[in-house]
Amino acid sequence: MEEEFNLSNQKIFDVLVMGGLGHIGLPLGLVFAQKGLKVCLLDIDENKTKLVLNGIMPFIEYGAEEVLKEVLGKGNLKVSKDISDISRAKHIIVTLGTDVDEYFNPQTKKLIDTMVGIKKYLDSSQILIMRSTVYPTLCRQLSKKLEGINIAYCPERIVQGYAMREIPLLPQVVSGFNERAIKDATELFSKISPKIIETSVEEAELVKLFTNSLRYLQFATTNQFYTMATKLGCDYNKIRKTMSDGYERVYSLPSPGLSGGPCLIKDTLQLKAFDNGHYLLGYSAMMINESMPNFIVDELSKKYDLSKKKVGILGMAFKADIDDIRDSLSYKLIKLLSFHSAKVSCSDEFVRDASFVSKEELIRDSDIIIVGTPHSAYKTISIPENIHLVDLWGIIQNGKEYKRWERV
After folding, report:
1. Cα dihedral angle (397, 215, 260, 291), rounded to 10 degrees?
2. Are 24 and 152 in a shared domain?
3. Does residue 221 register a pLDDT over 90?
4. 267 and 344 share a domain?
5. CB proximity list for 299: less than 8 A, separation 6 or greater
6. 170 falls within a domain
7. Among 3, 36, 130, 349, who pairs with 75 as Cys (CB 3.0-4.6 Å)?
8. What pTM, to 2 d.p., does this model score?
9. Residue 226 contacts residue 256 (beta carbons within 8 Å)
10. How would you write 340-388 as a 3-class SS string?
11. Are residues 42 and 162 in the same domain?
12. Are 156 and 205 in contact (CB under 8 A)?
């Protein structure tokens, strides 16, 4: 049930989240609302609005739908597309996405223009909290353009799909351009986070970018190792398991796999742009990770005439057990296989697409199967020995005990 809200300029919301129906904004808003705060989710997506107001999550976020129904019932949550609601909130949290262009450069102007555009709804009593991942120094640019507004930068660091679990467990980095912004942001996030870590704004910007880029570098390392081992005819996952058995210094090495998604590569490219192209590690990581579909198809084409093969791709989401396909490299596999005139079928446990088939049908009708995404449902399936299986993740055990020690 949606509570009636006063439409005056009185500060009737404790928190307003810009981009409030996205993967970052919606879980955050729910966590605050569950703590009893009055929350407004500002978003223009009408389809998501209808779902959320009916207590239905528009995407997979484990543990969120129960909370959504709870906070709607208590009247702690409003969904709005009225930008003037910004003037009615004590804290405005910005979770809008940031993109890179076709030249791999960050598109900062769009976010800056958006923030300048809402200045007329802001006053000195409010706290504007940037939570989006931003190009280094962007927050300081904003502070100059929004003079008189209290600005904090408090980056998110959750794993998509598990924000409801992680937000109450992860320390929150807090930074700001004045004591008021830091104090208020600290008080706000102390309601949901176990620990507050205060830094400078520039340090906080780099904390987020370095964290995501480090993960991307780790995936590139293990993917490069995989290609080397495969060229030698060796089982890389067996090698990796041997490397880490009782040897803690290798525990952080993730499994190989297709490293897609909207964050890791984008944040790596932002650092590359910031360092004027000198971030060679990041560029190399992009070349390695983005070329994994090419390596898979090239290896298969050495063994088979793919034009005469039926190839099935298991998993189309960009990561396990979610329904988000943004920048998923499984779709690059489709294009490369189609170039070789292979007949391609796809299956996914969470992504809804009328062209997809069930995993059972895919297994039955394929000569070659490639695991694009290591969904948990694939742990227990069996692949007949006459099918060529490409499973970088090592998730399909064909009846063997599966130990989850790959990336999360």
Report:
1. -90
2. yes
3. yes
4. yes
5. 230, 390
6. yes
7. 3
8. 0.91
9. yes
10. CCCEEEEECCCCCCCCCCCHHHHHHHCCEEEECCCCHHHCCCCCCCCCE
11. yes
12. no
pLDDT score for 398: 72
- Give the model confidence (pLDDT) of 41-92 as tens digits: 999 999 999 999 999 999 999 999 999 999 999 999 999 999 999 999 999 9
- At 370, the amino acid letter reads I
In angstroms, the CA 284 to CA 286 distance is: 5
Q: What is the pLDDT of residues 383-406, one digit of tens each?
A: 999 999 999 999 998 744 434 334
d(CA 198, CA 384): 55
**Domain span holding position 225:** 208-390
The domain that holds 227 is classified in CATH as: 3.40.50.720
Strands in 13-18's sheet, in edge-to-edge order, are 77-80, 39-42, 13-18, 89-94, 127-130, 150-153, 172-176, 196-198
Residues 160 and 255 in one domain: no
Is the residue at 405 inside a domain?
no
Q: What are phi and psi of 308, to 5 degrees?
A: -110, 10
Q: Give the total number of structural domains in the chain.
A: 2
Distances (CA, A) of 95 to 52, 66, 150, 294: 17, 22, 17, 34
- Does the pLDDT value for residue 4 go beyond 80? no
Same domain, 364 and 232: yes
Q: Do both 188 and 324 map to the same domain? A: no
Q: Which residues pair with 173 in a beta bridge?
A: 197
Tell me the backbone φ, ψ of residue 152, rounded to 5 degrees: -120, 155
Looking at the structure, tell me whether residues 59 and 194 fall in a common domain. Answer: yes
Query: Measured between alpha carbons, how far is 285 from 165 in angstroms, rounded to an integer?
Result: 30
Judge contact between 204 and 175, C-beta under 8 A.
Answer: yes
DSSP readout, 63-107? THHHHHHHHHHHT-EEEE--GGGGGGEEEEEE-----B-TTS-B-
| Within a domain: 403 | no
88 inside domain: yes
* Longest Cα separation, the chain: 70
Q: What is the pLDDT of residues 162-215, one digit of tens each?
A: 999 999 999 999 999 999 999 999 999 999 999 999 999 999 999 999 999 999
pLDDT in tens, 252-270: 999 999 999 989 999 999 9
